[in-house]
Design a protein that fits this description.
The complex is a heterodimer of chains A (157) and B (713).
Chain A lengths: L1 H5 L12 H17 L1 H10 L1 H9 L4 H24 L3 H9 L1 H51 L9
Helix pairs in contact in A: 3-5, 3-6, 4-5, 5-7
Chain B lengths: L1 H12 L4 H12 L2 H17 L13 E4 L3 E8 L10 E6 L7 E5 L8 H9 L8 E9 L4 E9 L7 E2 L2 E2 L6 H20 L12 E3 L7 E3 L18 H5 L10 H17 L9 H11 L1 H6 L9 H7 L10 H8 L19 E3 L2 E3 L2 H10 L1 H10 L1 H10 L2 H15 L5 H12 L5 E3 L2 E3 L4 H10 L5 H8 L2 H8 L12 H6 L6 H9 L18 H11 L12 H11 L4 H7 L4 H19 L5 H10 L1 H4 L5 H14 L5 H8 L2 H68 L1
Helix pairs in contact in B: 5-7, 5-11, 7-10, 10-11, 12-13, 12-16, 13-16, 14-15, 15-16, 16-19, 17-21, 21-23, 22-26, 24-25, 25-29, 28-29
Classes of the chains: A mainly alpha (157), B alpha+beta (713).
């Protein structure tokens, strides 16, 4: 127990930044945000589902990954559109179009649905497949027992 | 006889006279010319036998032996009955002029099988010619019996109703007869055979002129089994009737001596006494004095008769001495008188005994006293003082030394002493008196009558037989006598008493409850008997027993030693296979060609062999095939079916493959079942990983697409 407390989680551990570093980072981010505000705005609005998951389900990296990837895939369509017309009104008009908004959020929804359903479906399929295999083995064992009787090991399992 | 009465009665009830029935059966059987010949023979027989007593009881039916000799059971020639064997007229289908008769050997004993082929193949003057022999179904007892076919002596019997038919046997005929029979005894001796049925009621005139006397059958029963006590030596009288053994030429000469005495006087002896009484009388008086007293015997016959009736076997005369005496020629060597009686007597049970015969007889009769005398040293003292024989004395001292250690078997000790004192006497052990060569026949009868065999086991387990043969000067013990004790101690099938009797005695037929009333005198008859005696009730038993296997081991020899070993295996399939091979080999080599019942029986017993195949479908196939195979009646077909090497190899290979496959499948199944609990989690984990990759790919694809679109815009 002592070890588990003292040993840091190396997989997802991040080096803590000191105050100066944080300040520099914030300053840089603020510069970046203000310099590319239309992009940041689209990203912020488009990636709201991913951001929500990152806040609500912090430890579920797989979920974040799948939903995030699908979400970003949906957002890419409008991100490149902003690059052609790099202006805030264009960003607002894109976000203001409900169709665009639905597409961006729906891509995250697809990711979420896939995350929730595909593993269950696959697990059910696998179980069914195993059952089929066992049945086939049993059938073959019965045939072998009929043909060879007690001379061969019996199917007692 | 009761059956005969019944048959006759039945014929009378049916208003069919026996003669007419007989004629009808004859007519239907063969051509009219043959019938005439047959009737002619019957007339001849009635002419030859003035003294013939017509049988009152006839049974109908005819049996053919070797497709040639036809035995007519309706024509009982009772004057030729001999050795408890009834005689019936026989017609030779090839040469109807031959006058033949058949003796039907009794079932309670057995014919002397080992000498039949010799007697058939050889002509010996003064011996009734055995023409042929074979096993027949005897309708009177509904049993299978050996039938011996002889030539009818044309002059009838020599002695009828106690007197000779020729009132005056002239000296020439007497001389010719005695010397002729002695030659016959010598001839038989040269082939290791003794006759053992020389007696007055077994003498016949060979020709109608009554110029030559012959001796009748000697092979229809055990040697000397039906010899009246008067014709037997002191030693033989002491033995049980079935334990008299094969005897020797000396015994035949003695019987001839008694017969010659009757021929010389023209009368048979009319002693109405038991063998024990006769033994006592002969021992006390001496044979010649007992038999010849008050008889008028021609003086020139007396030396020869005395010589033949000498009670000491070594001093009994042979052919040359008797020939010289009867021809009036001087003897080459002096007449060996009986040895002098020892002057000192040995008192046993209050009676003074002088000769070894008397002493042995008295010792055997008083076992307790004899044993006490042995321990007290009285016998040793008597041997030392009366016999003055150091060799015998030292042997007796050895036996006394052995008897003094531990708890001695009194009967065994007394028997050993008696063998040492008088080796010519039979052995007596716990009430059984026998010559070793007669012991197998005693065991045979005991087996047949299902009597206790414990005493016989004790005898073979002791060294009495070995000791007896060691004391004999002229006899050799059987080659495998040393193995008797090991045979007895082995409980395995193919050993035990049964093995000993068939090893020891070639005359004995195989007897087993599995044969029913069949007569088994060889390998083919054995299979035939099993085949004929098969019934559904026997289906679940095995077609062999200890006696049969012991018999086969003795008759076939070491070739089947492996089979005997396999028959003692604890594994049923090995036993069944061994039996199958044994019987199939016999059928191939000796026949019979068709054995449907036995094949069915063996097929039923062969089921364990089917079990050696692993494949159940093939087992069922074999079971079905077996049902077809046994109808062919050939045992080899079962072997070909069940022990097909190719099929066995294929089964073995397939079984190994099936075993491997089963193990692999079970392993796989086991793996699946063990994985079942983790399966859901693993599957989900795997799906999420795959989904993550897919999501990443979708994102990259979207990026690439939009990038390309952006560039080209």
């Amino acid at each position: 127990m002592k070890n588990s407390k003292t040993t840091p989680n190396t997989k997802y551990s991040f080096k803590k930044l000191n105050k100066v570093q944080k300040l520099v980072l914030i300053v840089l981010l603020l510069i970046l945000t203000f310099s590319s505000f239309p992009i940041v705005f689209i990203l912020f609005i488009g990636l709201l589902p991913t951001i929500t998951i990152m806040i609500t389900d912090k430890q579920n990296y797989d979920k974040q990954m799948i939903v995030g990837c699908f979400n970003i895939a949906g957002v890419f369509f409008y991100l490149f559109n902003v690059l052609n017309n790099f202006s805030l009104p264009n960003a607002f008009s894109i976000v203001g179009d409900i169709f665009n908004l639905i597409l961006m959020l729906a891509s995250a929804g697809i990711g979420l649905i896939l995350y929730n359903e595909v593993p269950n479906l696959y697990a059910t399929y696998m179980q069914h497949s195993y059952q089929k295999q066992i049945e086939k083995i049993n059938e073959r064992l019965v045939k072998l027992a009929e043909e060879w009787g007690t001379n061969i090991p019996q199917n007692k399992l | 006889m009761e059956v005969l009465e019944e048959v006759k009665q039945q014929n009378i009830e049916d208003n069919q006279p026996l003669d007419s029935l007989e004629n009808v059966s004859e007519r239907s059987f063969d051509e009219s010319s043959f019938l005439e010949d047959n009737l002619q023979i019957k007339e001849d027989v009635s002419v030859y036998s003035d003294n013939e007593v017509k049988s009152e009881n006839n049974i109908s039916g005819k049996v053919l032996i070797k497709e040639r000799y036809e035995i007519d059971f309706s024509n009982h020639l009772s004057w030729l009955d001999n050795n408890n064997a009834p005689a019936y007229a026989v017609t030779d289908r090839i040469d109807a002029t031959k006058k033949l008769f058949a003796l039907i050997c009794p079932c309670d004993t057995a014919p002397r099988l080992s000498i039949l082929s010799f007697l058939k193949s050889t002509y010996i003057p003064n011996l009734m010619k055995l023409v042929d022999y074979g096993v027949i179904e005897y309708p009177l007892n509904k049993t299978h019996n050996m039938a011996l076919i002889y030539v009818i002596p044309q002059g009838g019997k020599v002695f009828v109703n106690g007197t000779s038919i020729v009132t005056d046997i002239n000296p020439e005929l007497f001389k010719k007869t005695v010397l002729g029979i002695l030659s016959m005894i010598d001839t038989l001796k040269s082939h290791g055979i003794s006759h053992r049925s020389i007696r007055t009621d077994n003498l016949y005139f060979q020709d109608a002129q009554k110029s030559e006397i012959i001796v009748g059958d000697c092979a229809s029963t055990f040697p000397a089994y039906f010899q009246p006590p008067v014709f037997e030596t002191i030693e033989n009288l002491y033995a049980s009737i079935s334990g008299r053994g094969n005897g020797s030429d000396k015994d035949d000469i003695y019987s001839l001596g008694v017969t010659a005495l009757c021929l010389a006087t023209g009368k048979e002896f009319s002693f109405n006494c038991t063998p024990a009484e006769m033994l006592y009388k002969k021992m006390k008086k001496g044979s010649y004095i007992l038999l010849a007293e008050n008889l008028k015997i021609p003086t020139n016959y007396i030396p020869a008769l005395k010589g033949m009736l000498n009670d000491v076997p070594e001093n009994r005369w042979g052919h040359s001495q008797i020939y010289a005496t009867l021809e009036g020629k001087p003897l080459n060597h002096s007449n060996q008188a009986s040895p002098e009686k020892p002057k000192r007597a040995l008192a046993i049970n209050g009676e003074k005994c002088y000769t070894p015969n008397e002493i042995v007889y008295a010792l055997y009769s008083n076992i307790e006293e004899a044993f006490d005398m042995l321990i007290n040293g009285k016998i040793t003292e008597w041997v030392k003082n009366a016999l003055e024989n150091e060799k015998i004395k030292s042997k007796i001292e050895t036996i006394v030394g052995q008897a003094a250690v531990g708890k001695a078997d009194k009967d065994l000790c007394v028997a050993k002493i008696c063998i040492t004192l008088n080796p010519d006497f039979p052995i007596r052990y716990k009430g059984i008196t026998f010559f070793p060569s007669g012991l197998p026949k005693m065991v045979f009868l005991a087996l047949k009558e299902q009597k206790s065999l414990n005493t016989f086991v004790e005898i073979f387990n002791s060294d009495l037989i070995k000791l007896w043969y060691q004391e004999q000067e002229r006899l050799r013990s059987p080659a495998n006598a040393t193995e008797f004790r090991s045979y007895i101690n082995r409980r395995d099938i193919g050993y035990g008493l049964e093995r000993i009797i068939y090893d020891f005695d070639d005359d004995l037929p195989c007897t087993s409850p599995l044969f029913g009333n069949e007569f088994v005198d060889g390998l083919a008859p054995l299979l035939r008997a099993l085949n004929n005696n098969y019934s559904e009730t026997l289906k679940n038993s095995v077609p062999y027993d200890r006696t049969i296997i012991a018999y086969l081991r003795c008759k076939i020899g070491k070739k089947i030693e492996n089979v005997v070993v396999d028959l003692n295996s604890s594994r049923e399939e090995i036993k069944a296979s061994a039996l199958l091979h044994l019987y199939a080999n016999i059928q191939n080599k000796h026949g019979p060609a068709l054995l449907i019942n036995l094949t069915k029986w063996v097929a039923h017993c062969a089921h364990p062999i089917i079990q050696i195949y692993h494949n159940k479908h093939y087992q069922k196939f074999l079971e079905k095939e077996l049902l077809k195979v046994y109808k062919k009646g050939r045992l080899i077909d079962i072997i070909n079916l069940l022990e097909n090497e190719e099929a066995l190899y294929k089964d073995k290979v397939d079984y190994a493959a099936a075993l491997n496959e089963t193990n692999a499948l079970l392993l796989k199944k086991n793996k699946y079942l063990n994985q079942n609990d983790q399966l859901e989690n693993d599957s989900k984990e795997m799906a999420i990983k795959a989904l993550s990759i897919f999501a990443l790919f979708v994102m990259l694809a979207s990026f690439a697409y939009n990038l390309v679109m952006w560039i080209f815009q």
